[in-house]
Amino acid sequence: MDEPLPNVAAKTELPKLAVARSAAPRDDSGAAGNLIFDVRDVSIYYGSFKAVTGVTMPIHENEITAFIGSSGSGKSTMLRSFNRMNDLVPGSRLEGDVSYRGESLYGRDVSATAVRRRIGMVFQKPNPFPKSIYDNVAYGPRINGIRNKAKLDEIVENSLRKAALWEEVRSRLNTSGLSLSGGQAQRLCIARTIAVEPDVVLMDEPASALDPIATGAIEDLMRELRSKYTIVIVTHNMQQATRVSDRTAFFSVLVNEESDTRTGVLVEHGTTQQIFEDPQDSRTQAYVTGRMG
Amino acid sequence: MAVAPQQQRADLREPAGWRRTKNRIATVLMVLSFVVVIIPLGFVLYTTIAKGASAITGSFLTSPIPSVVEPVNVGGIWPAILGTLEITALATVIAVPLGVLGAVYLNEYGGNNWLSRFIGFMADVMTGVPSIIMGLFIYSIWVLHFGYSGLAGALALGALMLPIVIRSSYEMLRLVPDSLRQGSYALGASKSRVTLTVVLPAAVGGIVSGALLAVARAAGETAPLLFVILGGLTTGNANVFHGANIALPMLIFQNASSPYPGAQARGWGAALTLIAIAFILMIAARVVTARFARYAR
Description:
The structure holds two protein chains of two kinds. In chain A, 32% of the residues lie in helices and 26% in strands. Chain A is built from eleven helices and ten strands. Chain A has helices at 14-19, 75-80, 112-118, 133-143, 149-162, 166-169, 182-194, 212-225, 238-244, 272-277, 282-288, and strands at 35-46, 49-60, 64-69, 92-100, 103-104, 119-122, 200-204, 230-234, 247-256, 261-271. A ten-stranded mixed beta sheet of chain A has the order 5-4-1-2-10-9-3-8-7-6. The longest helix of chain A is centred in the middle third of the chain and has 14 residues, at 149-162. Chain B is an all-alpha fold. In chain B, helix 2 runs antiparallel to helix 3 (114-127), helix 5 packs across helix 7 (191-219) and helix 6 (178-185) packs antiparallel against helix 7 (191-219).
């Protein structure tokens, strides 16, 4: 509501924009892939603050799902519940259930580290470790006990290739990961994430700190990764959502005047085409047409 | 012509007046305070070099300590150098790992619980405890039972170093951005792994230089050693765990209060040697910090 609007095309042109996207629109019915996440009536609290409430939605295999909505609508909080990153925030608590391939992520015997090895995450701000480029990518595999140098070399090269960074850094794998530019650093972080061969990649506004060219590179990368991974991306950029995602979930802020609290809610989810061309909720319509932040 | 003739040109000079005067006064005051700080420092260094350099001849660093009545250029200070090196090294081995682990607990594990707040508070209090109290403390709990030894001196110096190491390491760990920890967690690392492979390496440069500053500080301490290692040796005691020992600061203290010119000259020589050791440690701190900071941009 209070943030700068993405540069959305005028309302009348919007359908064209959505149709023109490269990803083939998929059917919302049973033809969709396997269920990766099943979110059932989830509410997440930070202490006494309720950040998001009553979210129920499916996430499908080998698809890119975009979370859009204004600041404070709980998109990132929801995303971080998929690999239990919220556990790291003291006082955070989740009600309801998120299941991953039929297994509850918040079950009693579930280890958060085991969850995160299968469900990786790329952050808003590139966060390469202050180690060499090689050691950044090899970090995850080493955690998983891979010590063989030849094997590590292979993983590092493959991951950097998949992240479209190999050609730029192949001659300086021993230089610091911090020496890279913003876009390169973010691709390094993506390489680092896919080096552990996760099942799902969560991306929290991965391109918001990048220029349009670097953003384009990341988006191309996401489209390529889609065949192998399931991707969930939080974005403030609606054009980005239309460009890369198969499905879109729109979150909004529920303001309670009485207690002066703001809680995120999931308003609507569906195929990206449907959300942008035929929104069922007036709030969704207002947001995607740019009449409301 | 870019500027129209009738247009007045911008005057970008600092306007004369009180503001400019204030600026000048402040600049002069800052330069003066710098000079005031430098004078005693330079004078200490100059005096020590002027009086100590002549004492340092050929065998000075390697000879046993003679009786105080011996004239200038007889004997040397080797036992005190040996004592300082072994006692400080042992103190470092005791205090640095403990201090770093303590800081890791405070910043990574303790959070804001009562234990970590208590430890942090005690570390701050310990920083302010006079060093002679550390000596008295070790005297009463160690020397009275086990006798004088280099180890007792190392315990006293270690107790002195511990809060410094805890504080400096803690500050360094706090500087490690949380985004690095999150990046590591997101790859499935456990907490101990995050700490060992991301947090500590990111902070190691600062931790090492903080520890070396503590070492240099401890190496120059006299008071905590006075009644725990006894001193008064003429030959070196290589066994740091048993028997009286001697260290450079103590030797300086004993010789400085002696009326004999030979002893005084040896005292100055020892002072210069101690400064040189501290200087070498500082340079080592810089080199090590730079080496560990290789990947920090």
